[in-house]
Structures are given as C-alpha cells and as structure tokens.
Write the structure tokens for this entry.
Amino acid sequence: MKYRKNEAKEYAKTVLKGVWTALPYNFTDDDRLDEEAIGFNLEHCISKLKIEGHYCSGNVAEFWAMTNEERMRAHEINVEVNKGRVPLIAGCHHQNPYEVVKLCRHAQDIGIDFVIILTPYQGAKSDDAVYEFYRFIAERIDIGIVLFNIPAAYYPISANLAKRLAKIPNVCGFKQADPGPANTIALRQAIGSEMVVSVADETPWLQNLAIMGDQWLLNFCPHLYQVPGYLPVNDYTRAALAGDMNTAVEISRSLNPLRAVHAKWITGYGRAGGRMPCHEQKVWMELIGMKGGTVRTPCTEMTAEARKEMTADLEATGLLAKVQGVSKNKPRRRAA
C-alpha cells in the first residue's frame, strides 16, 4: 500500500479529487465477464476522456449479480489496464462482513487504492448496527474505506453516525447519494474537516466545487456526457478551479440538454416500482463508441421502442454528432 492504515485520511485528501467515473461491467452473450470490453472502456476513460480516477464494482456494474470471484477478477483487470495511471476504488459491498473483508483484502493485495462499502441492506437497521458493521471490517483490513450513503435504498448514514464512523482510523471518504441539500450541508459540517466528501451527482458539481468547497466528483456521468475531443465536465471543472466562473457556468449550462436525457432514462434507479437502468446506460455507451452489451438477471434489456426513443433524445442533444472516428457498436442481445 502507498500509505499506512493511520495515514488513510491524510492520503485520501491528496488523492480523492477531480472528476472520476464509475463504469458498468460487460458480459458476453454466454453470460461471462467480457474482459476485453471491460478493459476497453477503462482505457477509453483514462486515455481519451482524461478521467482522474475510477470506481469499479458499483451499483451500475451490477455487482449484486456477480460472484465474489468475478468481482475480484474484475478488480484485477482494472489494475492491469490502469497501470497506476489513476487512483482506483473497488466496491466491496456485501451483506456478510466476512465476505466484505475477503474482497477488501484482495483489493489491498493487488494494489487498489481504496475500497468503498455500502451499508448492509438487511442486517443493519440502526446506527449501532451500522457502526458495528464498519468497525468489524475496518479492524481486519488496512486499506482506506470510503462510506457510501444511499438512503433511498439502504439504512441512512446521518451526519451524527458519520461523525462517529469518522473516528475509525481508516475510514477516509464519503460518497453522498442523499439528494437532500440540508442533509449534505449537515454532513460537511460534521466530517468535512476530517475526510473527503463527494456528492454523487454531476448536476450540482459546479456549485459544490465553487461554493461548498468540494474537491471530488464521483459519478458515472463523466463517461456518458463526454466523448473524445469534447470534455465539458473536465473543462468547466478546470475553469472553475482557475477562477474563470463565467466560462465554467457557460460550459456547465450547455450540458442541460444531456442532463434532461439522463433524468429521463437513468436517474432514479432503484426507486420503488422503477427499473434498474443498467441496460440504458450500456446502450448510451454503445452510441458514443464504448462497449455495452447485455445485462444480468434480474435486470432486463430495453425494448426496441425505448432504445429508439432514447437514441433520438441523445441525437437531439448533439452529443452523437460529436463522436468522431469511433465506430458505433450495435447493442448486443443475449443469445437465445
């Protein structure tokens, strides 16, 4: 590891910054990991989209439909393709804390920089139970832990609980997927001086960066909104950091049509009664020259009508016209 366990918080402050993304995993038509496609997409993001870090094995990667062995192999692919160019975070989410420890130790051993762990989705229904879950894991690993809060789907990590968890030496970051601004303000006040907080949404990133003092965007929009030669999220981020707010606002505002398509087809996955839009994201990626493919059960593929409608929506934004010199892959369907 590049740091000692008790140095995780300080190291994270130097590394968890800038524009990161979180990629889906790809599967072959016979339902195996598509290692070539996984590597292609990561290389595309690093060398062509200039992302500054990657979170692998997140919700969009369908980690919950994969074996631990597949997840660990996918982490190895990330390390092999990355070659140390950008920092990596591995999602080690699991309801069983012993399995979390196994995944974390593997990530630590192969050179992943940090792990991210969701609150357990069944066994922990109180602050004390969530604290015990993280304490148990943290005591058995050295790698830095990023907490992940999705209150719409899992037991929420409140500002008070976050402050308590922040006392664990290797808890060093927080991915906030609570849409309530007041809760995020309270969270920053509780732990912002101790560890890095990222709001898991590109839309308020400019305000969070320029006004709230955030330094880290961890969200999958950077690989959906950007194509080689057109990097608006990177550009408005750099403009804001340079103090050129007029340019930053102008570029950020230009993304509103894409944000509207994202809101229509992607945002809100996991809602009660809603579908998990994993295939929507993969079809979007295929349209901009990345690898997509099929999804695993219980996710389902888009209908032909929905695919056609989303394609038209993206064409209307002008994004597809910006894809130059990259072949558009046709969406692949699961073999009959």
About this structure: The longest helix spans residues 68-82. Confidence is low (pLDDT under 50) at residues 325-336. DSSP finds 14 helices and eight strands in the chain. The radius of gyration is 19 Å.
